[in-house]
Design a protein that fits this description.
The chain is α+β, with helices and mostly antiparallel strands. It has one domain. It contains five helices and five strands; from the N terminus they run E-H-E-E-H-H-E-H-E-H. The protein has helices at residues 19-29, 58-70, 74-82, 107-115, 127-139, and strands at residues 6-16, 34-41, 44-50, 85-94, 119-126. Strands 2-3-1-4-5 form a five-stranded mixed β-sheet. The chain is globular.
Length: 140
């Protein structure tokens, strides 16, 4: 019997044309969220965040990320609003043989994302690919 798909986490991904445009947002979120990545990706300078605690479920994690954005000071909020990319990216792990993933997001969480001008994005990760990447990092 294949393993069931599993919710992994929600990443808050923000992108702008330059690092300078994101600087107030980066300063404001330092210590409030965990920074996963910062750097240029394609044509945008991007920063990716997760919550500092364990992810309970997708909706609860979206609420926590949305609260961090809603609490931004006016300068950081302007950087958020001016950003080209404002994604709440829901990650799901797919085991071998899984043909269908169903993950419900509560309406209030979806409304908060929309009110913030963000997008809900879903990314499915194949377990075998994740396992290979983990083994490769362990050998390095």
């Amino acid at each position: 019997m294949p393993k069931q798909p599993a919710f992994l986490n929600v990443d808050l991904e923000v992108g702008a044309r330059t690092r300078v445009r994101l600087a107030p947002l980066i300063r404001a979120l330092r210590g409030k969220l965990f920074e996963l990545h910062r750097g240029r990706h394609d044509d945008l300078y991007r920063v990716h965040y997760e919550t500092n605690g364990c992810a309970l479920d997708a909706s609860a994690t979206i609420h926590e990320l949305a609260a961090a954005v809603e609490a931004l000071d006016p300068v950081a909020r302007r950087a958020w609003t001016d950003a080209t990319l404002r994604d709440f990216n829901v990650g799901v792990e797919l085991a071998r043989g899984v043909a269908l993933v169903e993950l419900a997001i509560d309406p209030d969480a979806a409304r908060r994302v929309v009110a913030l001008g963000g997008r809900l994005v879903f990314t499915a990760y194949q377990v075998t690919v994740l396992e290979r990447a983990t083994r490769k990092r362990a050998r390095s």
